[in-house]
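Q: Could you fold this chain for me?
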Amino acid sequence: MFPMLTVLSMFYYICLRRRARIGTRGEIMNSRRAIESNQRTLPLTVEVEQYVKEIVDFSSHYGSENSMSYTMWNLAGMPNVYPSSGDFTQTAVFRMYGKWWEQCASAPQPFRRTPEKFQSQDYVELAFEEPVYPTSIDILETYHPGAVIRILACSLNPFSQNLPAEVRWEVLWLGEPSKMVTHQARQFSPCIKQINFPTNLIRLEVNSSLLEYYTELDAVVLRGVKERPLLSLYKMPLIDISDFSDSEEEKDAYEAERLRKQFGDTAINEHTNNGYFDKLPYELIQLLLDHLTLPDLCRLAQTCKLLYQHCCDPLQYIQLSLQPFWARVNDAALDHLQSRCTLIQRLNLSWSGNRGAISVPGFCRFLKVCGFQLVCLELACCHFLNEACLEVIAQMCPNLQELNLSSCDRLHPQAFSHISKLVGLRRLLLYRTKIEQTALLSILTFCTDLRHLNLGSCVMIEDYDVIASMLSAKSKNLKSLDIWRCKNITEKGISELVSGCRLLEELDLGWCSTLQSSTGCFVHLARHLPKLRKFFVTANRTVCDTDVEELAANCPNLQHLDLLGTRMVSPASLRKLLQSCKNLLLLDVSFCSQIDTRVVQELTVQFPKVSIKKSFTQ
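A: Sure. Below is the predicted structure, expressed as structure tokens.
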């Protein structure tokens, strides 16, 4: 068995190496001569420094849609905070940090075959005044730095009225998630790669999973030259000493000879067509290919007919995430994958298809062939979507259980009405969309098996009390509800909600300013939701000791609690909570006026398994 696997690995290696060669020896020498001949005539260029002019797009932010506090729009212009450190409302903050959200029941299942190098969780796209050839980029981070893991440049001018025939994205810098020793402000200036086109559209991708708290960005500085540096015209390929020795044919002959000596001439020559592959069961080869990423699978398909057949088997595409390749996914890619995805059940197109890469006909064409068995469809930040797309989803995906439309903020409100036809939906994410109350009520009426619903920052809903009443009546199996920054739910809505949705494990009421503890709504909630694991009442100034003590008495499974901003919670009630809730992992008491740093330190010593957060403003 093991010799067969060794042969398979070696064969794959030889095939990939053949295609990986960059340029011939003649091209290398010509590039060198070109550089030498132009070294004396390099022009002097003036470097341009500019701050962000406009925020083009982003995946999430901590702030609301109708204010500036903690929003991505704070990245425009000169710094507001830097070089000060701390938690400031004038900075840009993403919605999540750490591992906490991944631990929740509402977190999506990861997709197989996601490349290890792709670890981005959020992004923001920044437009600058003038296109330049970048020479440096400075990112001013004012709190818990280290989230930025990838910087890209785009060939498209975002202020141009006409889309070019081709939109290119080039990676300027790539890093890994990191955990900084300090949370102090810093200027992050990575060494960036030279590119061969001018740009005034920069994209930052972040991963905050290792950070202790929300990362805060203040400003971004782009420096560059308007004239293309001549050195970038002549990119010399890396020279391997082996390029000047044996030819490719000689190398492959040597590898074949080595294999013959290791396994014997008879074994190699028994099957002249496909060698050891003819001895392997079809299922075993399928199992081996199951460990390849999508690009590797596509490359392997080009090596021989047998492997092409295996690589195109629809069983290899039961689930497919194209999010890591968002910059290259277009109509042609979907058309190419169409015949392979006839059995697909989980598809992730998040972040893909923007700026004309995927057209409405192209998307609909793909779903009409591949949509019938889909149970999960991730479409976060897909701005090509329109009403026709959602209509096709409703028609062609009758088995759909999970639909993610987060930050699809350009969808017309009327489009959402088609979702009500997906009666089997269990997970629906509508964060930062323009869904209106009528469409949402229709969805809740017909989609009665909802388990997870995200309505965070949905500002077009007029009366959340009505929504809560409908959820109570129709969504008895609801496990998680996010109404982050809802501005009009009252104690009546909370009472209705908890009376019908007794299985709730996660409830996010962060920044819901209309809820008042004096009405008894939080006490009522704690007494009726014994399964509660996550409870966010962020920035509710009225939460008091009585509410915390009721949580301690009635919610023993509590794991995540955010009390940021309350003035009425004392150390004594927190101690009761920590003693009663043995599973508690996260407790945020930032800006709680009665809880100072000394109290946090004492509680951390007493309850070391709990991560107690206390942010500050310098």
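A (continued): The chain has 17 helices and 21 strands.
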